[in-house]
Amino acid sequence: MSDASLAAPPVKASPFHELEVLWVRHWNDQLFSFGVKRPEDFRFRSGEFVMIGLPGEDGGKPVLRAYSIASPFWAEELEFFSIKVQDGPLTSRLQKIVAGDSVLMGKKPTGTLVLDALTGGERLWLIGTGTGLAPWLSVARDPDTYSRFKQVIVCHTVRNVADLAYRDFFSHEIHDDPLIGDEAKAQLTYYPTVTRERFETPGRITDRIKSGDLFADLQLPIGFSPNSDRVMLCGSMAMIKETGELLESYGLKEGSNAEPGDYVLERAFVG
Q: Reduced to 3 states, what is the DSSP secondary structure of residue 25?
């Protein structure tokens, strides 16, 4: 028997990066964010998502879910925004991570919530519910966003006021960003709505679109225009479906990476 026949088979490259957790922030008992060390060779477009997970228990297969990257493409660390599901296969464990732990991350980012999937326009609407805010944290910190659009409006709908994670960030902290702070101060509007508690802008974003309250609050013409408005959608399936139908009724057409359009949604999260 030759030495060649005794050689060990080549080790198959892992499809995942194993990354160190740098920090964890618990917003409340339902939501948390965490940051990980960015691999030197990892590249992505602002708004894309990637698979995040943990090794399987008792030697089982890794447990993975799609997570939007909440960092802009230029950031030195990668941030993620997650719900907590107490009996969830992944988040029941992921919510317990602390700085110094490791998580798995896929090597291939992808997604349609990117500027490349939209045609040119004057106003960019970033409409999200719950943790669907995550990609807007990325897109709103991308310099290209402000060079392509005169106005950027971040709409975030949640059930309770305590669920408005990143409220302070979008209200004023982003204005101190060394790269896009001045542009954000001049061009970015933050529009939160709350459905289950008293709030200055109550109700679902879809209801405020249909009533015209959204546009009145922002002192804009009622409705969306295919000539000037471009929209990104992320969050609950109900919101995405209803808002998509509303946009279509105004004449906006869905876009994709292959064929840019007036609005985009992330089908990976819609099912």
A: strand
Q: What is the C-alpha separation between 212 and 241, in angstroms, rounded?
A: 19
Extract the tokens encoding 110. Answer: 């992808």
Contact 149, 122 (CB under 8 A): yes
Residue 155: helix, strand or coil by DSSP? strand
pTM exceeding the 0.85 threshold for the entire prediction: yes
Beta strands in the chain (DSSP E): 16-26, 31-37, 49-54, 63-68, 77-83, 102-106, 123-129, 151-158, 188-194, 229-234, 263-265
- pLDDT in the model for residue 7: 58
Query: What is the rounded distance in angstroms from the CA atom of residue 271 to the CA atom of residue 269?
Result: 6
DSSP 8-class letter at 226: T
Amino acid code (one letter) for 247: L
Residue 189, both tokens: 């509007």
What confidence tens digit (pLDDT) does each residue in 66-89 have?
A: 999 999 999 999 999 999 999 999
Q: How far apart are CA 158 and CA 50, in angstroms?
A: 24
Q: Say which residues have a Cβ less than 8 Å from residue 219's Cβ, sequence separation at least 6.
A: none
Nearest to 264 by CA among 237, 234, 242, 220: 234
Residues 38, 80: contact at Cβ < 8 Å?
no
- Cβ neighbours of 54 (radius 10 Å): 19
